[in-house]
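I'm stuck. Protein, please.
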Amino acid sequence: MSICSVLGCNNGKRKESCRAKTFFRFPFRYPALVETWIKAIGREHFRPTPSSTLCSDHFEESCFVYQQFTNRRQLKPGSIPTIFNISDPKSTREVHKTREPSTSNET
């Protein structure tokens, strides 16, 4: 089963989330495009493996071409992921301040 490499995207982690999704491997034949994908997904130090994928949710509809008989989606050459409607769980967490020890000598 494929898992999307976009941080915060849960597609592929549960079977239900894979319905109607297509997963695309990083285009290793085109190193410059791989670097563009890495920058686009905001993971500067990420190094994809041959099994790393992105799900179809991160590509515009205009990036797809459909196979004639199977209606299966394929990416057009040079397509770049541009859709990232995922809330970052780290940014939505509340920040809790720690209490400073009291320095007053009130009695």
